[in-house]
Amino acid sequence: MAAGIVAMAWTIFTQQAHPQTLSGGAGPQAPLRSVVAALPLCGVRTEGIIYEVTDALLPAALAIVAGSGAVRVLVFCDGTNWVVL
After folding, report:
1. I need a labelling partner for 35 at 20 to 30 A (CA). Which of 4, 23, 52, 66 fits?
2. Which pLDDT tens digit goes with each residue over 54-77?
């Protein structure tokens, strides 16, 4: 039962945070892609959004992402900072 609740919550969150991924059942969508400097401001309106960045510098899991590197990683907005997944 708990797994079903988590899946339902994830679906609701995804539809609210990522309306651009609603594709009428066409399957999973790739995350948005950016360089670190071009990421949108991380705040209440972007909290939970996931991006792929293409220029991370020495990324470490759950650390604030820095740009000007050459590593591709997924990052998410925690409401304050873009953090490496």
Report:
1. 23
2. 999 999 999 999 999 999 999 999
Asked if 19 and 8 sit in the same domain, the reply is yes
> What range defines the domain where residue 56 resides?
31-85
- Supply the pTM of this predicted model: 0.68
Cβ-contact 61, 76 below 8 angstroms: no
Tokens (6 digits) for 43: 């705040």
**DSSP secondary structure letters along 40-80:** PPPSTTTTT-EEEEEEESS--TTSBP--SS-EEEEEEE-SS
**Residue 34 Cα distances to 7, 21, 46, angstroms:** 28, 17, 15
